[in-house]
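FW: tagging you since you asked about this chain on Friday. Here's the raw sequence from the shared folder, copied in full. Didn't touch anything.
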Amino acid sequence: MSHRPDNQVRNLVIVSDLHCGCRLGLCPPGRIRLTDGGTYQASPFQRKVWRWWREFWDEAVPSFTQREPYAILVNGETVDGVHHRATSQVSQNLEDQKAIAVAVLEPLVQSCGGRFYVVSGTAVHSGESGCDDESVARTLGAIPDDTGRYARYVAWVRVGRALVSALHHIGTTGSQAYEATAVHKELVEAFIESGRWNREFPDAVVRSHRHRFSFTGLHTAKGRAISLVTPGWQGNTPWAYRIPGARQSEPQFGGVVLRESKEEEFYFREWVREFSRPKEVWL
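HL: got it, structure written out here
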């Protein structure tokens, strides 16, 4: 483990799966100006989600970080993209979608003092090689990796003494009975790979993609290692209703804070919200 700087930030705030540009994705209130002169106004659904977004940043984050400085990691899929012949986008012009993402995220870059990182999402939503996440991250001035990518494929982050591995992708399941399987496997495989090459194993493995929060963990010589999946910020699209498991569940909205306390305890706090299921029909 490298030497820890005395002024190191000990809080990492993680959000993911914003899907800006989707009519069920994250969108600020007011009228959004589109290319060619048109406008879009957030739906009641999006305005509700936006209130949760502000509640997370205005109330949960200051509480979880104890109002100490923090860094931000957006773990993939800033925009919805053009995919699956979908018709649920605000606009299929990716410049419109990226402009919405920048409007959503730009205030956060200032709030974290520029300690802002982006991980690339799936090619379906983020473009081939993550080009659309890369464009948003570059516009926002995200901290690039050693190769110059502004939307990196994986982020290794030191939070106090703890080492965090974050990337977007993780396996899914058609059964909620096995929802934790891939999450735990990701942690075990990280331990195996670290052991093979005599490297420090991560204290936290962070993945996204599923739009549902879950976590698992193991006790270790260092205390505890955790593996978690972040919630997202998109409602169920028509695509989701075709997928086993997802089609019977409501999407979850929120974020996660990883923190090392002044007593050098490493832990996480999640903030999760979910819509009620649709009202029943009376015959």
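FW: The chain has one domain: 13-274.
HL: agreed, and The domain at 13-274 is CATH 3.60.21.10 (Purple Acid Phosphatase; chain A, domain 2).
FW: great, closing this out.
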